[in-house]
Amino acid sequence: MGRAEDLFGRLEKDGERAIDDLVSEQQFEELFLDFKRSADGGRGTKLHQNDRLNLAKAISGFGNSEGGVVIWGVECSKTADQGDVASAKVPIENPKRYASWLEGAISACTIPPHPSVRNLAVETATSGFGFVATLIPKSYLAPHQCVKPVQYYIRAGSDFVPTPHAVLAGLFGRRPQAFVFHMWSIPEAKLARKAATVLAVEFEVGLLLGSHGPGLARDLYVNAKIFPPDKPSMAWVKVGPY
Question: Fewest CB atoms less than 10 Å from the CB: which of 33, 100, 169, 195?
Fold first, then answer.
């Protein structure tokens, strides 16, 4: 899990309190974090065109880089010593509706579309207002080109900048990567008698390796360590069929 996912998880867990902390600490925009004030505060009948353009640039820039989070509904001001920092909350009207507008715009923002973008509505104590956080993970389908403006972006410091030619050439020429993830299951352990004075604890561990992304994963392996109790205990391992 990267920094963007960590921040998004914090917003899911703490809600408005997490945003209050970012503003009170004057959190600065950085490689993984961007603040945006909605052009119309979510009061229109659809996603404002300026917000759509900012969303497209963010999907391209974060998706082509290391991923990031956009927090909608926070004013960002430039300071002489810190740069762009969160300075005030500007809540969005009906954040759930605004999040749905963002969801509906994602597929038309870039070519190819980024399939892993998520939106989270963060409601406030004031009924009907709140914020929206957009998680844009690093994409395994990069490079992503903005539909409008027609441009490839990357995240550099606190800005989205046009992708330099050499970087873009590398993105196009990069060998497709596989993203491997694992899951496991551990059924309830059983106590078995192996001899008159020998008892054994038997348990199974099931492992499943999966992959998503355009690349093909090969030659996968798993390391497993067993730490039995002190002597005279012993451990045996039986590998089941694949």
Answer: 195
